[in-house]
Predict the 3D structure of the following.
Amino acid sequence: MKLCRFRTANSRARVGLVIEQTVHDLSAEGVDRLTALLEFEGLIPQLQNFASAPGVPRLDLAEVELLAPVEHQEIWAVGVTYLRSKKARMEESDFSATAYDKVYDAPRPELFFKALPEKVVGPGGTVGIRQDAAWNVPEPELALVVNSRGVLMGYTIGNDMSSRDIEGENLLYLPQAKIYDRSCALGPFVRVNATEAEARTWPIGLSISRAGAVAFRGETSVGQIKRTFTELIDFLFRSQTFPHGAILLTGTGIVPPDGFTLAEEDRIEISIAGIGTLSNLVQRV
Ligand code: DO4
Ligand code: MG
């Protein structure tokens, strides 16, 4: 079962329940905000009721514009949760290598702020690479959708766009490597009825095409994430409240080879079995 934010021509943003190729428009049932829906205690039975309610308009998925599945949630990210990410970062950095090594094994994970909701790029939108960075990569990540009580309500796909040369020069430059215009994409759906055990079986695929040819392709699995989702959410919510909930990217396990950098007009496609495919074009910002 999946949720989306969408609009049709000249309409406001609405919330939909996606079943196969059909979007059930939940505004007919008085549901206008994803945030409110994610606070429901019995979300799945409620969605089942909506799916069979006669008054709910059904739209063809191909005919709606999908929006990023975020309203007022802050977007945070975890780093160095996959062995692949730790190794790549130790190699790219001269003097911060031990920091990555230590955080991979430490009880406390690396958590960092990634984006404000209004800055997030949705499905089909354009993600950015910095003017002052020469080595840019996408980071395809499972994103946890968490409500205000810290309950994991669903999963979406996140792209934690990163400038590797800036991060590699000095770890204190991490916010500049990670936070800039169009540096975070989310979507296309929020998958709601999957346990952590099920999500851990999902492969994650990344494909980057340039001028019609594949420039890079890679794959990993959610199961390679070192820490549990409960542990990650627990650390995020320590001494911090999220009145609208939060979205937490869980780290990357796919790193293109060192000679690879993104170029304008590249197409990035991130697929996570169980959710869908997030597709974005690249532009310098
Ligand atoms: O330590 C820096 C960021 C790590 C990261 O974004 C990742 O592992 O995905
Ligand atoms: Mg990342």
